[in-house]
């Protein structure tokens, strides 16, 4: 079973790239983030032509998440369902092939100690509560997403330069660790403890050609799936070419 995650940075702007990627790589499930469109404007027909069903939680102009799958996703949940008045479309969950799959788009946080930063930390606390009330660590669960946090120094190109900046502050890294304490394993880091790879590069200042990136797109697994994990990688090639997303897809494979 192949599961992937990809912040497409506008699904309509990247529609042909998305369709081509689906046809080439044939994931069983793909978590998408930053759709930047409503459910009505999502390219369901193009996705269907590529052989995929789509569960979508969209939002005009901003945010938006989806789960695409060869099998129709079931038991779809949109949003964290915790009674908080939050209009941001950042979370969707569904069951695909016996595995509970989550697509999450964590808040960016903007400037440290801004309202957006406080919202980001609270959003992770809400996600932690969601997992604790809706799931158990011994259930087969995959969380894919743009987490907007680089967990460790190896996950940024220049730790000294990034220290204290949004995406790499201690408070952000700590709140991500609190979520992971539910019982989540970072698929890429589990297989490659010392390898440095990035998933996001700024469009500016030749960041991608210079490989000045960060690893903020992760796939997390619960314990039952870890022994099944056989591969995980970043598709850096998809960051190349005309009008790419600033994120590259990340994928994993689970043996039967």
Supply database-style keywords.
six-stranded mixed beta sheet; alpha+beta; 26% strand; 256 residues; 6 helices
Please give the structural blueprint:
Elements: E1 2-7, H1 15-25, E2 29-33, H2 44-49, E3 53-57, E4 65-69, E5 74-78, E6 91-96, E7 99-105, H3 115-134, E8 141-146, H4 159-162, H5 170-180, E9 185-186, H6 187-191, E10 200-201, E11 213-214, E12 217-221, E13 229-234, E14 250-254
Parallel strand pairs: 1-2, 7-8
Antiparallel strand pairs: 1-14, 2-4, 3-4, 5-6, 6-7, 8-12, 9-12, 10-11, 13-14
Helix pairs in contact: 3-5
Poorly predicted regions: none
Shape: globular
Strand order of the largest sheet: 3-4-2-1-14-13
Give a count of the beta strands, DSSP E runs of length 2 or more. 14
Number of H/I helices:
6
Helix/strand/pairing category: alpha+beta
Element-level helix/strand string = EHEHEEEEEHEHHEHEEEEE
Helix content: 10-25%
In whole angstroms, how far apart are the ends?
Answer: 7 Å
**Main sheet characteristics:** 6 strands, mixed
Which percent range describes the beta-strand content? 25-35%
């Amino acid at each position: 079973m192949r599961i992937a995650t990809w912040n497409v940075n506008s699904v309509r702007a990247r529609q042909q790239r998305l369709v081509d990627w689906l046809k080439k790589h044939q994931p069983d499930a793909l978590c998408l983030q930053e759709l930047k469109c409503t459910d009505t404007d999502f390219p369901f027909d193009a996705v269907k032509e590529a052989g995929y069903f789509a569960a979508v939680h969209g939002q005009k102009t901003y945010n938006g998440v989806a789960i695409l799958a060869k099998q129709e996703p079931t038991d779809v949940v949109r949003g964290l369902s915790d009674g908080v008045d939050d209009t941001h479309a950042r979370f969707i969950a569904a069951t695909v092939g016996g595995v509970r799959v989550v697509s999450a788009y964590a808040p960016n946080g903007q400037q440290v100690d801004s309202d957006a930063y406080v919202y980001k930390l609270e959003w992770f606390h809400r996600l932690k509560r969601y997992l604790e009330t809706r799931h158990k660590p011994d259930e087969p669960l995959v969380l894919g997403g743009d987490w907007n946090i680089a967990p460790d120094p190896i996950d940024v190109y220049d730790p000294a330069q990034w220290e204290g900046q949004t995406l790499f502050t201690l408070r952000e890294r700590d709140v991500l660790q609190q979520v992971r304490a539910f019982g989540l394993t970072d698929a890429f880091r589990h297989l490659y403890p010392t390898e440095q790879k990035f998933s996001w590069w700024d469009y500016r200042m030749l960041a991608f050609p210079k490989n000045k990136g960060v690893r903020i797109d992760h796939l997390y697994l619960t314990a039952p799936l870890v022994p099944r994990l056989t591969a995980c990688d970043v598709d850096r090639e998809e960051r190349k070419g005309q009008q790419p997303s600033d994120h590259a897809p990340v994928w994993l494979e689970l043996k039967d």
